[in-house]
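G., the chain you wanted modeled:
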Amino acid sequence: MATLAPFLFVSFCLCFCLEQCDGANMMSTVLMNLKECQFNTTYNGTTSLDDAIVYRYRTDRLPETVAVRISTFSSNSTTVYPVLFVVRERLNVLSWQIPLVLRDVYEYSYASRILCPVDLNRNLDQAFPEAFTVTVSSQSTVSVPFSLKADILEGFTIQDSRNVVASASTPVYLLYTFPEGLDSVHIQANSVDKTCAVLSIQDIKCPVFDLDSDVDYQGKYQTMTTFGAITVTKKMFPPGRFFIVLVVKPNNLDCDPNEINEMNQESLQKQKHVTISVKTAITASQFYKAIGLTVGVFFGFCIGTILTYIIQWCCRKCGEENAVTERTPIVNADENDGCQAMETLDADKNFDRTRTPIYLSSLSLKREKKSDKNFKLYFKNLLAIAIFYGLPVLQLVIAYQKVLNITGNNDICYYNFACAYPWVGMSAFNNVFSNIGYMILGFLFLVIVYIREYIHRKQSTTDMTTGTKCCLPCIGMGSSSRNNSTKLYGIPQHYGLFYAMGLAMIMEGIMSACYHVCPTLSNFQYDTSFMYVMACLCILKIYQNRHPDITTKVHTYYLAMAVIIIVAVIGQLYSTLAFWVVFMCAYMTFSLRLSIEFYYKGRWEVRKLVIDCFHGRCCKTNLDGVRIDHKDRLCLLLIGNLFSFGISLYGVIKQPQSAAMVLLVALIFHLTLYCAFYIFMKLLQKKQTNGDTVRCVRCGEKIPWYTCLFILLAVIFWGLAIWMFVANLTSWQESPSGSREHNAECWFLGFYDKHDIWHFFSAISLFFSFMILLTFDDHDTVSKKSRDNIPVF
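Predicted structure as C-alpha cells:
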C-alpha cells in the first residue's frame, strides 16, 4: 500500500485538473460566444440555458450626441423562461426581458430601449476603442429564438420640434441643450389621439427612467392625452441640458379612471404619435414689463379715482356754498326724546311696518351712534375671521407647492400648463400675481369709504347750507327721534358694511392667490369663501339702506356664512343624490322663511302664530300681518323662489361635483335681482287717489349721473370678465390629463392667460359694483328728502 500511495495521489490530482479544465471549457463556450456587430443590422439567433451570446458594438467612430436604440423581439419566450437582454456600457448597465411585463398583466413580445448618448459615455483619454455589449441569455432548457437590432438615432437632439412615435414597450426620449443667452423654455407635447402617456423632464443621468414602472423616479412629470406642457428653467438643470422623456401607459386608467380596462392584442400594439415642441419662454425683460405694467395700471387707476373723487367733491362744495338757498336750520334735539321714542317703538311698530306704503322714518328709529357701532362690528369681526382663516390656508398651499417641487408630480395641481411660468418657488406665478387687482382696488374702496365717512362726520356737525352748528345731521344722517320739530333727511349713513365689503375684496384676492398656488378640488373653497361673504354683504347693504333698524345682527350673519361654507365643503366631497335632496329641502325651507321675513319686515313670526293658533288665540292682530298688500315685493320674492327651486332641482337631477359653484351662482343671481329691484323701485312713480285728492306715494327718485356711469362700466367689465371666465382653461372635475386638454396659450403680454384677465376684469367690476351701492342714493331727490317721504321697498 505504501508503494501505491504516491500513484493514487498523482491520479487524484490529474483527475481534478481535467475536471476543472472541462468546466472551464464549458463556461468559455457560453461566455466567449462573442460577435462583432454592425449598426442598423438585424441579428437573429437562439439562446438557452447553455448558450448565451454576447454582441459587441463599437461606438468610438460615432459622432457626439448620437444615441443608439436597441430593438428586441422574441415570440416563443414565456414569463417563466424569458429572454434576458443586458446592455453593458462603460458607466451603465441596462437590462430588460422579453416578454416585457408591465403592471403584472400586459406582456409585450417586442421591446425597444434607447441607450444613453454616446458623448455621455465616451472617455477621451481612453486608448482602446469605446464599445458596448449586449448579452442575450435565457434559463430555458429549450432554445428560444430572438432577434436583435441596434439603430443609430441621428435625430436624437431637439431644438424646435420633432415628431415621435412611442408605445408602452418602446419609450422615447430626446436631448435638449440650452443655447447661450436663453434661461427658460416651454416644452409642449401635442397628439391627436387620447392614448394615455407620461411626459417627463429628467436630468442628464444614466440610465434614463423610461418605463411605466419607474418614469416617476426623477425630474418633473405629468400624464397627458392630447396635450402636455412643462416650463423648464436653466436653474433646474445646471449642466444646461436635460432629457425629454415620453412613456406610453399600457392602459388609460391613469388618464381616465372611469375607462373600462380591456386587454386585447390591439391594445398591446397601440402607438401614440406625438409632436414635441420647444418654445422660448418669456424673457426676464418681458416678465418685469408685464409685472410693472400691471402694477402701474392699477395704481394709476387708484390715483386717478381718488383725485377725481376729491375734485368732484370740491366742485360740489363750492357750488353749494355759492348757491343761495334758504332752509330752516335743524334745532338741537333733546337726547331724551330719542329714548322716549324707543320706549314707544314697540307699541306702534306693527302699524308702522305693515301699513301701505311704509316710509323710512318707521324703520330708522334707533339711535345713530348705537346703530353705527353695531354695523362697525361687521368689519372688525371679518378682520379676525380673515386672520384665523387665512393663516392655515397659506400654510397648506405652501406645503402643496413644496410637495410638487420635491416629487416633480405635476398631476397634483391643475394649472394651465400652456401658460404657467415658475418664479420664487411657485409653479404658476402669473396665476397668483394676477389677483393683485382685488387687493389694490379693495384698498382703494376702503380709502374712498374713509374719505366719505370723514366728510359725513363734518356734515354731521355743520349745516352745509347755513353754517349752523347742530347736534343732529342735516343730510343723509339719522338719530332716532319722533319730535315733530326735528326733520331727518336722506338715507341713514352707516359705513360698517362698506368697510367689511372692502376688506372682503382684499381677502378674496389673497385667498384666490392661495388657491392658484396649487389649484385642486380640495382647496377650491379658498377661492369661493369670500365670494360668498361679498355677495351676502352686498345684499345686506342694499337691505340696510331702507331697513336700518331690522338688519340682521353680525353674529347671525357670520353664522350663516359658516353654514354656507360647510355645505359647500360637504358638497365638494360627497356630491351624491342624498346630499342634493337634503340640500334642496333645506335650501327651499330657508328661502321661504327668508321671504316671509323680507315681505312682512319681521312682524310675522311663524312660531308665535302657530302657538297662538294652537291655544285658540288667533286674533285679528296676528292675522293682520298676513295681508298681501305689496305686489311689487311679492313679484320679487316669487322670481327669487322660483330660481331657488330651479337650481335646487338642477342639483338633484345633475348632481354636479361643484356644490360651491352652485351656491355662488345662486347668491350672485339673488344679488343681481335685488339690486335691479331696488333701482327699479327708486325710479318708479306711484300716485294714490283718495276722493278728489291725488297723493304722490312714490314720486320717483333720481340716480346721480356718476352712479349711472358706474352701472355702465360695471356691466361692460362684468361682460368681459364672464367672457374670459367661460374659456374654461382647467377643470379639476376631470382627471389631470383631461384638464390639460383645455389648456391654452398665454393671451396677453405673453404672460397672462384668459383666467388671469378674468381676475383683472372681475376686480374692476367688483369695484364699480361697490361704488354703485355706495352712491346710488346720493341724489338730492333722496338726500334732501325727509324720511317721512322716503318709501321702503
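Residues 6-10, 21-32, 324-351, 463-486 have pLDDT under 50 and may be disordered.

Shout if anything looks off.
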